[in-house]
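hey so u asked for the seq, here:
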Amino acid sequence: MNEMELVESEILKKKMPEFRVGDTLKIHLKVKEGDKVRTQIFEGVCIRRRGRSVNASFSVVKETHGDIVEKMFPLYSPVVEKVVVVRKGRARRAKLYFMRHQKSKVQAA
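ran it, structure tokens below
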């Protein structure tokens, strides 16, 4: 086992739930403000997953105050404390990019 595999195995010990595109997720994020650290929750619909292992990432879109916000998160980032699956979705596509432009469907999905 080389050094890179050792580092990756330590990172992969962090448990992440199984989720797919179309699922509604709550992402608990560590936010540092000055010398304080707090947890902020970002809830939305997963519209994309890409990569494998340590390089995996996912995108979440939500509607807030009439605007659509999309954020991309590395799956094993130290900023992401935990991911909670609120509701399972049923998607017929691998990427739901069309939800970036449809305001009413972002909350309903």
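The longest strand covers residues 36-50. The radius of gyration is 15 Å.
lmk if thats what u needed
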